[in-house]
Amino acid sequence: MSQGNEAKVSDARRLLVERIAASRYVSRSARLRDLFFYLTNHVLDGDSGEIHEQQVGHQVFGRPKDYDTSADNIVRVHASMLRKRLEQYFSLEGADEPLILEIPKGNYAPVFRERPEPKLAEAPIRRAHRSADWRLWSLAVIATLFACSTAYLSLRTTPSAGALPADPLGPTVRLFWTQVFRPDRPTDIVLDDAAVGLYEELTGRQLTLSNYFDRTYLRNVPESAAAANLDPRAASSIVLHRLSNFSGANFLWKLFQMAGAGERLTRLRFARDYSFRELKANNAVLLGNSRSNPWIESFEPVLGLRWVFEKATGTYYPVDTWAAEKRYQPAAPGDTPEGYCAVSLLPNLGHTGNVLIVAGTGGSAMNACADFLADEQAVSTLRRKLPTTASDMFPPFEALLKLKGRSALPRDASILLCRTPRG
């Protein structure tokens, strides 16, 4: 099979997985959904090894690595339930699916096979795609390029021994980053979901974290797209793809260079695959704003900054809800280049670790923010604006930086606000 055909088959399988996860048969049970994604990702990511019950119990259900599977049948029970839900999906809601996904009894590795019925005619599909709204496809092309950049940078960020100098950072910078990358727990770097952000921009509808997590928003895509004069089939195809913004991917590359991420247990995660369980137990870096990374919604009750999308210019900018909705809009074209970046350090949902949230007005702002967070003088200035602590560690904070053009030094950035979160 050619590489092009292999890519098409892989895309078709991943899109099928997303549709099943969004169906009422799987989306209503968090445990079934977690099991479903764990098993399907194992196959889709090319791992041909056998999936063992003990492995599933540990990775999905939090059982000890060496737990007794004969005394604890949680995996077998949920796998049986999942098989029945898949049968229901393909006999009702997914009756027209050209591919079928099954989990054979006695095995946990999903199997994809073609439905024996004749395939649907392709001509109507091509006509539907040609009629798709040009805005959707032009932005989709840009997002796809961002996705390629993300994949490239992700490969480049694979940590290797000796990749970083022994201590390339100043003491205050290192103190800050050791609260994000700790030796006693993993740190999840959660890339934003650009496809969802694109969908929200075009339809004018913002998703809630609840609808995003259980995939119920996918069932409303055709209706929302039609209301916004977009082609429903094209909109569904775009939203189901996994895309991340270039600004977050570039920040990720700098993060691995400067923060010692390679020295710790660091995991790269896509927002759509993340879970409440991980956000309660692990440290995390959440990239983007709550439109493209809905996990940030979990922390918005204690933060004052919100990100607003201006449709006329196609840009995001921060608004301070604690200061009479004060707006911080980037410079107009032709003015001195500048942008804004919000940085927040907060306890994770389980109060067992820390979460760093970084959002900017664009790629240049995110780059400048990364440089700021690696500069000893800049981070020391930020630290002096925060309350002192007995251990000198950074307390929880929310800060907004005004950043100048690419040639400016990090210490030239203005710290417009730096405050303690509420609650």
Strand elements, count: 12
How many helical elements?
15
Give the H and E element order.
Answer: HHHHEEHHHEHHHHHEHEEEEEEHHEE
Query: End-to-end span in angstroms?
Result: 57 Å
Largest sheet at a glance? 7 strands, mixed
What is the residue-averaged pLDDT?
82
Brief overview:
The chain is an alpha/beta fold. The chain contains 15 helices and twelve strands.
Write the layout of secondary structure elements.
Blueprint: H1 3-22, H2 30-44, H3 53-61, H4 74-91, E1 99-102, E2 111-114, H5 123-130, H6 134-156, H7 171-178, E3 187-191, H8 194-203, H9 209-213, H10 221-227, H11 232-240, H12 246-258, E4 266-270, H13 276-281, E5 283-287, E6 305-310, E7 315-320, E8 326-327, E9 338-347, E10 354-360, H14 363-372, H15 376-384, E11 397-404, E12 414-419
Parallel strand pairs: 3-4, 3-5, 5-10
Antiparallel strand pairs: 1-2, 6-7, 7-8, 9-10, 9-11, 11-12
Helix pairs in contact: 1-2, 2-3, 2-4, 6-8, 6-12, 7-15, 8-11, 10-11, 12-14
